[in-house]
Each structure stands twice: as C-alpha cells, then as structure tokens.
Amino acid sequence: MSDAVSTKSETSTGVRQIVEPLVLLLLAGLLFGYLGQTMGVTHMFNTLFNTAHQLLLNTVLFLMGITVLTGAAGRLLMEFHVISLIERLLVPLMRPVFNLPGRAAMAAMMTFFSDNPAIIGLAKDRRFNHSFKVPEIISLTNFGTSFGMGLIVITFMATLQNNETGATYFLPAMIGLGGALVGAIISTRLMQRLIRNDSRLHELSIKDTHSELLDDHSSTDPVWLRFLNALLDGGKGGVKMGVAIIPGVLIISTFVMVLTFGAPVTGYTGGAFEGVALLPKLASHVTWLFELLFGFDHAELVAFPITSLGAVGAAMSLVPNFISQGIIGGSDIAVFTAMGMCWSGYLSTHTAMLDSLGFRLLTSKAILAHTIGGICAGIAARYLYLLLSPFIG
Hints:
The protein has 19 helices and no strands. It is an all-alpha fold. α1 (2-39) crosses α2, α2 runs antiparallel to α10 and α9 packs parallel to α17 (330-343). The longest helix is centred in the N-terminal third of the chain and has 39 residues, at 41-79. It starts with a helix and ends with a helix.
C-alpha cells in the first residue's frame, strides 16, 4: 500500500514539474507579448525599469519615512501604556460590536500600529486567548487584518495635498477609518458565522507559543532613557517594515501601473509611468458599478483596491500619480483609506497567518469573509463621505 501511495505521489510531482513551467511560460508569454506588441519591446523594458526606479526613489523612501516615524510613535505609546489605556476604553465595545472578548482590543491596537502578522503572537498566547471560543480565535485573523498598517495608511492619506486647493485630505482619511471599522465588523462576524458549524473545528487546535508582546516589564530606567529607547527601537521596527514593503511596491505596483496608465500624447518613449491602460478598458465595461459602489469617476481608480489585495504599500504608491493627473478627490481618498486599511494585503498574509495558528484549512472562508468586508468598507466610506460632505466644505 505504501509503495502504491509513494508511486502516486511521485507521478503527481512529475506532472506538476511539467505542467507548472508550461503554464508559467504561457502566462508570461501572453503578458509580455501583449505589452511588447503594444509598447515595443525596448520601450516596455525601459518603462518597467524606469517606473520601478521612480517608485523606489519617490515612493518607497517616502513610505519608509512614514513607517519609521509611526513605528517610533507606536512604540512610545506602548512603552508609556497609552495603548493599554485605549484598550481599556475599547473593551466595552468588543462583545456587542465584534462578538469578541474585551481583550481583543489589544489585537486591534497591535496591528493598527504595526502590521497584520502582529495578531499571530497574541492569538497563539494562552494568556491572551484562554477566554476565546475557537471560532472567535480564528476570526482574529480577519479582525486584526482589518486594522493592519492602519496608522501608516491614515498618515499617508491625511498628508496628501489637493493640487487645486493645497489642502490636505485629513478629514477624508478619518472618514475612511470609519469605513474600515464597518468592514472589520462585517468581516469578523461573517467569518464567525461561516465557521460556527464547521465539522473540521474539532480536528484543529491552536498552536501555543509565548508572546513577548504581553510581557509587562517594570523598568527601573529613568524616564528619559525609556523615552529615547522607545523612539529608537520603534524607529528600527519602522525601518524593517519599510524594507519589507519594497518588493511589493516595486514588483506589484510597476506592473499595475503599466496595466493602468496609457501612452503619452507623443507616443511611447520608455519613460516611467507609461502603459497600455488595460485595467481601465476592462473596468470601463462596469463603470456604473464602481461609480455606484465607490463613487469612482475614472476607471483607473480601480487599480487601488485591486493592488490592496496583495500589498497596501504598493497600492499607496499609486495615489500620488492619480493626484498629479487630477482624477482623484476627497471621496476617493476616503474609499482608498477604508479599503486599503481593511484589506491591507490580506491575500498575501491570510494563508500564512492561519497556517501559523493551525487553521490553514479555513483559509478560503477567511478570504471570502474579508473580501466582502473590504467591499463593504469602501461602500461605507463612500456614503459616509456623501453624508458628511456638507460639513467638510
């Protein structure tokens, strides 16, 4: 029996080794063939390289500056127990709003000030999860992801400037935060509902570990030294996060931009941010839907939520170009903030997060719930903006 199983496994592996490279070569040939035929092979490669170079200089370094400062601020708030105070204030809302124990507020704080994976250390710690039911602990993946990189996304959006008025988009970013909260509620509760009667739950168990995030160290160091160490340690964490987003921004954003933006009036030159405008062409067939749901007046804007699925850092790099083209407004910033914060690259993190917790078999349900939650976040932000726009001016 074991020989038969081994032979079957070897056969399956052999088939994959033949099929996978053929599929990859086919897809790559179609993509680069289409781009090369439209733009010219030389211009295509020059545009890819120049776009990645400009993103590295003008976007990645700017985002890294934000991650360093917000990382320092987050660590400072943690060191002097501000986050613990906020957690206590949020505890009464956790059960009626998210159907989670009060201590789940700590999970929201951790991911808001850092990134999605911060939820793993908490969820696997018995000191944290002992009062959670199994569906609740699994739904923390959706709950935590809804707030991932929240401070970075909001700070980035709020500091952007309107080309016409010079005003910042602070209020639209705050409205986007409200939309993200709506998405978090829907995603978390829907995930709990989807897995509530799942027969596989009794076969799975939480992988236990120790999380240093909950350790309460009573330091005898002087206040000034704690202050300085918190700033420097948080800044170092921000550097790591800034480096971590480089591949997503350079790889994903470069190709998304080539597929989003069109040719210059004078024709292709191989410069940065030229493209074939394929995504807008596809989105133009359902423009009415995107306008109804999110208020997008330009089909190019659909590139932001699509990119957020894989990496919100990459999605943020699209926004300055939208602003320079004059195709974005306050409503769009609110929607981008909500969807970027709620989704925050969940397609690239949900599988790893649930696998780490020991619930990889439930990944498809988590992704389904979070997809719906992110769409609802964008819709909520759009209509909250319309409701409050008379007071924004």
